[in-house]
Every structure is written in structure tokens, then in C-alpha cells.
């Protein structure tokens, strides 16, 4: 760990506080913060900007930045972007009950653009043979912070698996991060359209 945090101003009685950090180091990553805070110590209102570099998530290196507003126990992320595996993602949404009054909950949308399948499969230890192509996804996560429900779509315009070319692959997904279901999947191999579905969880894995 390392770095400094500088704050100027006062909080309460109509005052404002501006805080800026140097590169705060943690576990190989660096974090920079800028915040403008008003209100009172018991009920702060803050606008925050954050920049993360050289971080790792599930073994995947990433860099990210985000802008957010905090008020009355709710954090509203208006613009978050991340770069990883030569692709990028954007997200926005809210996190509620951060000051009590219930369990923390989220409502976020996220979009993944052009994720390379081969390095993603390696990083996540997914046993695919010679995967190629780019993946796009539109996701919506809601519910409890520690057990969110995820729904969305995943598509691969063109790709190959074990040397077999395919196109127009898409599937709808729903469930939790530990128990996902894929429905209404379709993919075109040559001139043949194929429908599929799958389940992935701690108890069973199923593909049809």
C-alpha cells in the first residue's frame, strides 16, 4: 500500500470538501480518486471520480474509470468504463442501502464490446478447443449485492471452435453468477441453423 490523500475545505455548516489522491497502490493495482463532498458528516453528498490501473479480476488484467454521485445511502454510477483483453465494457446503475435501512442492492446495466474469446476462455479456465472470434454482450444485474440476478444477451457475429467456422451466434442468459441458464440460443454453421440451450451451476452442467 502507498500514496497520499489530500483534502481541502470543511464539511457541514454549508462548507464543502475537495479531496484528491495520488496513486494509491494495492495488490499490484493503483487507484486515483477525486471527490467533491458537501452536506454533513452524518449525511454527506459526494461527486466522485475514480481511475484504476493494473488491476486483476479473476486473473484478468484491467484498467477502469468511473464517475458517481452518492446521496442518502445511494451510489449512482453514471459512467463506468473498463478495458481488458483488448476489449472494453461500459456500465451504469445504482447501489442502494449503503447507509443502512436494508441489505445493499444493485441495479446495473453493462455492455461488453469485442471481447476476444480465446484469451477470455483461458483466463476463465473454460475448456474450449481453439476458440476464435469476438463476443458482444448486453447485461442487466439486479437484486442483492451478494447474490444478484443477471439477465441479458450474448452474441458472436463470426467465430470458430476447434477449426469449425460459425456465424450469427446469439443466446439469452439468466440466473446468478454461480447458476446461469442459456436459452433461445442459435448459431449458423455453413448453411445450417442450429438451436441450443445450456445450464451451468455447481450441481449440474447441461447442454442441448
Task: Please tell me the overall pLDDT.
Answer: 92
Q: What structural class is derived from the secondary structure elements?
A: mainly beta
Q: What percent of residues adopt helix (DSSP H or I)?
A: under 10%
> Biggest sheet: strands, sense, closure?
15 strands, antiparallel
Please report the distance between the alpha carbons of the first and last residues: 48 Å
**Individual helix count:** 1
Low-pLDDT residue spans: none
SS strand fraction:
over 45%
What is the CA-based Rg, rounded? 21 Å
**Series of H and E elements:** EEEEEEEEEHEEEEEE
* Structural shape: elongated
Would you count the extended β strands for me?
Answer: 15
In short:
The chain is mainly β and 208 residues long. Helices cover 3% and strands 72% of the residues. The model has no long low-confidence stretch (mean pLDDT 92).
Describe this structure in words.
The protein has about 210 residues and is mainly β. It is built from 1 helix and 15 strands. The protein has a 15-stranded antiparallel β-sheet that branches. The termini are far apart. The model has no long low-confidence stretch (mean pLDDT about 90).
Amino acid at each position: 500500500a502507498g500514496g497520499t490523500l489530500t483534502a481541502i475545505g470543511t464539511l457541514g455548516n454549508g462548507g464543502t470538501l475537495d479531496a484528491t489522491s495520488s496513486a494509491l497502490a494495492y495488490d499490484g493495482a493503483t487507484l486515483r480518486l477525486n471527490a467533491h463532498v458537501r452536506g454533513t458528516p452524518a449525511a454527506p453528498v459526494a461527486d466522485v471520480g475514480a481511475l484504476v490501473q493494473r488491476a486483476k479480476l479473476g486473473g484478468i488484467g484491467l484498467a477502469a474509470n468511473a464517475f458517481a454521485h452518492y446521496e442518502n445511502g445511494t451510489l449512482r454510477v453514471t459512467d463506468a468504463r473498463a478495458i481488458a483483453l483488448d476489449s472494453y465494457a461500459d456500465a451504469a446503475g445504482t447501489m442502494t442501502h449503503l447507509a443502512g435501512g436494508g441489505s445493499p442492492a444493485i441495479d446495473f446495466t453493462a455492455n461488453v464490446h469485442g471481447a476476444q474469446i480465446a484469451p477470455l476462455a483461458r483466463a476463465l479456465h473454460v475448456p474450449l478447443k481453439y476458440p476464435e472470434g469476438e463476443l458482444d454482450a448486453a447485461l442487466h444485474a439486479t437484486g442483492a449485492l451478494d447474490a444478484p440476478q443477471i439477465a441479458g444477451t450474448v452474441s458472436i457475429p463470426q467465430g470458430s471452435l476447434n477449426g469449425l467456422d460459425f456465424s450469427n451466434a446469439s443466446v439469452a442468459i439468466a440466473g446468478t453468477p454461480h447458476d446461469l441458464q442459456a436459452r433461445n440460443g442459435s448459431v449458423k454453421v455453413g448453411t445450417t441453423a442450429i438451436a441450443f440451450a445450456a445450464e451451468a451451476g455447481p450441481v449440474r452442467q447441461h447442454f442441448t
